[in-house]
Structure formats: structure tokens, C-alpha cells
Amino acid sequence: MHPKLYTVRGCVVENGKNSSIQLDLEFDGKRAFVIWDSVSLGALKLKARVEINPKLLKRVHGDDCDYLYRGQLVLPHPEYN
Fold it and tell me: What are 15-23's contacts with CB under 8 Å, separation 24+?
């Protein structure tokens, strides 16, 4: 069974500046994850998920996203690994 995907809009800091970003969002029980990246390998889909605080999500009714994240999204930087 695949979890239902939603979209979330949040704020990230890049190069010292705040930016708005929209990502896919999925829930696993009471936990929430943004999908930072995904890759399909045949029938498999690998996802890089970043856990976020579900208490900071606000449900919105709009055309472009399902939730707003009221915290700051901290996304990994693969170039630093």
C-alpha cells in the first residue's frame, strides 16, 4: 500500500536568504515527511524523506498546495557529503 501524497509549502534558507519551496508530503502514522528527492528503478521508487514536525503543519484549501509548514524546512545538502 502506498501512502497518500500531499503537497506542502514551506520556507527554506539558501545562501542566507529565505525562499519558499513546495514539496510532496506524506504521513506515516503520526509522523510527517517531505519528499526531498525520488528515483525510480524499474518498479521500485526510492525516496529521500526528511522528517518534519507535524504539529507545525496547517491544512489549507488552495489549488497549489494542501498544507503550509509554519517552521523552517532544513534540507540536506548532498554536495557536503
Answer: 21/73, 21/75, 22/64, 22/65, 23/73
Rounded Cα distance, 40 and 19, in Å:
28
Q: How many domains does the chain have?
A: 1
Q: Give the domain extent around 41.
A: 5-74
Kindly report, residue by residue over 47-74, the tens digit of the pLDDT.
Answer: 999 999 999 999 998 778 899 999 888 8
The answer to the question of residue 80 being in a domain is: no
44 lies in some domain: yes
**% of residues, the chain, pLDDT over 70:** 90
Q: Which helix or strand (DSSP H or E) is residue 54 part of?
A: none
Which pTM value belongs to this model? 0.81
Residue 79 covered by a domain: no
